[in-house]
Amino acid sequence: MVSEGARTIPPVLSPTAIRLYRHVVRHTVLPIEEATRAATGDEGEPADAAVESLLRLGLLRRVGRQRIAAVDPALSSMRVLHSHEQHLAEEKRRLAALRDQLHLLDSIHRAQGELDAPSQERLTSNRAVRETLNQLATSCAKEVLAAQPGGPRPADVLAEAADRDLDLLNRGVQLRSLYQHSARFDSATLWHATQLTSHGAEIRTLSSGLTRFLVFDRETVVLPLPDAPEGALVLRDPDLSSFAADVFEVLWAQGQPMGRCQDKPSIQGIGNQTKQAILRLLVQGSDDRGVARALGISVRTCQRHVSEIMTRVGAKSRLELGYLIRERNLLEP
């Protein structure tokens, strides 16, 4: 909508208008009909419309009713352009003032949000967690860091997260996520990751040592609750959030980029990392369930890996396996 008193910037002259002006200049004074006939071409605006545009800009003047003459553009520009330049300068000043006002309102909005939101919030239901995550994502302006252990993620969780994450990416928010290696072999999780990376997200995977947490703009961190699997602890503290972000960066440096196309050496490397993680957990005394939970794999998959390791080293029991791991220094540094 154009406000009252707004000015329309003069249009750029068409090739027809330029050709018409050149023809009139050469002949000093011409009948309008002759000028339009000489300037008519296959492209651009009609010649009569070109005459009108040149008259409005003061580049032509009427001599009587039927003839026209050219006017010096230097004289016309002072009259036509100067007023529009003044108007544009005033509009720039108004835009600068509005930008400053919007910045002030943004500060007021953020400050009020910080006052309204508790610095520490304990959420015990899945619904409350989802609502809070949606709110944090909506207000996020720069960056989200997400550590998501546990292997493949449920399809309904991925579907909800996709809408939220794509909105972040479309708004220019940087999104980086860490999964565990086992997520690479789940079609739903892999499709989700491919969809996000195609919109600019970055995703890497680790074998183990991953704890669930999210960091929004390095101001708010969301942590799991040990006594409420579906709950979360929300901490609106820049110092704690910065610490969590530093932890994420350490883990991120150890991760491997996740992609749909995985060559044989990469898969073998991931398999070796998984087996190394299993060896470490077994040496630490973890049982099959503990190992599976730590690596985000099923107990059956864990048992298969352990069986392959035992066959490879020639161990006939778990006890002997533990001894051979230390004896042969099978754990990589």
CATH architecture of the largest domain: 2-Layer Sandwich
Indicate the CATH topology of the largest domain. Answer: Endonuclease, Chain A
User: Which class of the largest domain in CATH terms?
Assistant: Alpha Beta
Instruction: Report, as a whole number of angstroms, the end-to-end distance.
Output: 68 Å
Radius of gyration: 35 Å
Tally of strands: 11
Into which percent range does the helicity of residues fall?
55-70%
Order of adjacent strands in the largest pleated sheet? 4-10-9-8-5-6-7-11
Describe the 3D structure.
The chain is of the alpha+beta class and 333 residues long. It has 12 helices and 11 strands. It has 3 domains: 57 residues, Winged helix-like DNA-binding domain superfamily/Winged helix DNA-binding domain (Arc Repressor Mutant, subunit A); 143 residues, Endonuclease, Chain A (2-Layer Sandwich), CATH 3.30.870; 63 residues, Arc Repressor Mutant, subunit A, CATH 1.10.10.10. The strands form 2 sheets. Strands 4-10-9-8-5-6-7-11 form an 8-stranded mixed β-sheet, with helices on both faces. Strands 1-3-2 form a 3-stranded antiparallel β-sheet. Strand 9 and strand 10 form a beta hairpin. The longest helix has 44 residues. The chain starts with 14 loop residues before the first helix and ends in a 6-residue tail after the last helix. The N terminus is likely disordered.
